[in-house]
Amino acid sequence: MKHGLLGLLLACALTAPSWGEEAEKPTIVPVTKAPFHLFTFQDDNMSLVSVTLPPGFSTGYHSHDQDLVFVITAGAKIKNQVLGKEPVELEFKTGEVRFASYTKTPGVHQVINIEKDHAMRLLAFAIVYPEPGRYSVSTRPAKYEVALDNDRVRAWRLKLSPGESAPAIQQTSPGARIVVSGGTVTEKRPGKPDQPLVLNNHDFMVMPAEERGIENNGSSAVELVEIELK
C-alpha cells in the first residue's frame, strides 16, 4: 500500500508543472480587455481603440486577430515584446502612421512605456472585414502626402498653416480622420453650409465617402491623418 501511494506521488510530481512554471505563464487577454485600451466605436468596417499608456506602465500581454492601422498622437520610447521573445526598444514618433497585419497571422504582445515623465498616446482601428477589395480608394492632390499605402488602407497626411486651404477632394471609400495637431478649421461641401470645427490633438472622426474641402482659419498649424479603407 505504501509503495503504491509513493508511486502515485512520484508520478504526479513528474507530470504536473511546478509552481514556478505556473507563475511564469503570463495572463493573456483580448485587445478589447487590455489595460489602457479604451474602445469607443465600431461599425461594419472598423473598430476604434484609444490608448493612453502612462510612463513606466505596460499594456500587459494581449491578443490581436484583425489588421490594425494606428497613428501616434503623443510619441514616446517604448518596448514592444512579442510573447516568447525578447523585448525590442522602439521610438514612436508623434504623427507616425503604422500598420500591423494580424488577420492572417494573429499575435500576442505587450507594450511598455519606458519614458519617465510623459504618456504614449495612439489611436488605432482594427479592420473588421477580413479580406481587402471591398472599396476603391481615391486619389488626392499633392497637398495630401501619402503616409501609408497597402492592400488594406491608404493614409494621407495633411498639414495646413494658418490661412491655408486644401483643394476639394472626392473621397470614394469610408475611412477615418485622426488629429495629430489641432486647431480651428472650416469644412466645405458642395450645396451645404460651411462647417466650422475646433479640432484637438487625439480627436477621431469617421469620414464617409463624400466631396469636401478644408481650410485652416485659426491661428495654429493643423496636422491631420486621413485614412480610406480598401
Give a description of the structure.
The chain has 230 residues and is mostly beta strands. It is built from two helices and 19 strands. The chain has helices at residues 2-15, 19-24, and strands at 29-30, 37-42, 46-53, 62-64, 68-74, 76-82, 88-92, 97-100, 107-113, 120-127, 144-149, 153-160, 165-170, 175-181, 183-188, 195-199, 204-207, 211-216, 222-229. The strands form four sheets. The protein has a five-stranded mixed β-sheet with strand order 1-4-9-6-7, with no helix packed on it. Strands 2-3-10-5-8 form a five-stranded antiparallel β-sheet, with no helix packed on it. It is globular. Residues 5-21 have low confidence and may be disordered.
Largest beta-sheet details: 5 strands, mixed
Q: Which structural category fits the helices and strands?
A: mainly beta
Outline, from the CA principal axes? globular
| Count of DSSP strands | 19
Strand content: over 45%
Average pLDDT rating: 92
Low-confidence stretches: 5-21
Helical residue percent band? under 10%
Radius of gyration: 23 Å
Measure the end-to-end span: 70 Å
Order of helices and strands: HHEEEEEEEEEEEEEEEEEEE
Spatially, the strands of the biggest sheet line up as 1-4-9-6-7
Note the total helix count: 2
